[in-house]
Design brief:
Blueprint: E1 22-26, H1 33-44, E2 47-50, H2 51-59, H3 63-70, H4 72-88, E3 95-98, H5 107-116, E4 119-124, H6 127-136, H7 147-161, E5 166-169, H8 175-186
Parallel strand pairs: 1-3, 1-4, 2-3, 4-5
Helix pairs in contact: 1-8, 2-4, 3-4, 4-5
Length: about 200
């Protein structure tokens, strides 16, 4: 599948060029948000944050345990609180934030992100490729059950992810190539994160 990027939407809010920047990576499980986020942050000399790791640190439990012991509704509440906490922190340096697969699909989270004025990049791949990647990993994914359920969940979320300002296809590309493409489409540079 060929790479395509979506231009910013009319009226999209962006931070002043001199301000510290924030880039959110969104997409379905297996899209590579954490791996690409780390590579992107290294390249830009920005900080990196995985929202799921923040949730685990706050709750003292792994994501799978939260799902198993408290349910998805409790997890979504914890996710929203963690995102609000992250966005309330003073933005003294630029950062890349990888969101869990369902975070941007929640309207209240998408609204918080929009108000924050950051750039949002949707990392995507064919659903068959995403499923293959998830099956190859050893990581426990609470919402990964079977192919039919996986495809239905992807289809239900894809239109919500597509509301991101940019989209990058990840199929057939390595992590560094994807990070390079994100830097290019957002015209980012190392340091404070000013837009060129």
């Amino acid at each position: 599948m060929r790479s395509r990027s979506v231009r910013p939407r009319r009226g999209e809010v962006s931070a002043p060029a001199s301000a510290a920047q924030i880039v959110f990576l969104v997409g379905f499980m297996g899209a590579g948000k954490s791996s690409v986020g780390q590579a992107l942050a290294r390249r830009l000399q920005w900080s990196f944050e995985d929202l799921d790791r923040r949730i685990e640190a706050r709750d003292g439990r792994a994501i799978e345990q939260i799902f198993q012991q408290s349910g998805e509704t409790a997890f979504r509440e914890a996710e929203h609180v963690a995102l609000k906490e992250l966005l309330r922190e003073p933005r003294t340096s630029s950062r890349v934030v990888a969101l869990g697969g369902g975070a941007f699909a929640q309207a209240q989270n998408a609204l918080l992100i929009k108000k924050a004025g950051g750039q949002v990049v949707f990392l995507d791949a064919p659903v068959e490729e995403l499923f293959r990647r998830c099956r190859q990993e050893n990581a426990e994914r609470p919402l990964l059950r079977d192919w039919q359920q996986f495809r239905r969940l992807y289809q239900s979320r894809r239109a919500l992810y597509a509301k991101a300002g940019y989209q990058v296809e990840t199929d057939g590309k390595d992590i560094e190539a994807i990070a390079t493409e994100v830097v290019r489409i957002l015209s980012l540079r190392a340091g404070k994160g000013s837009v060129k």
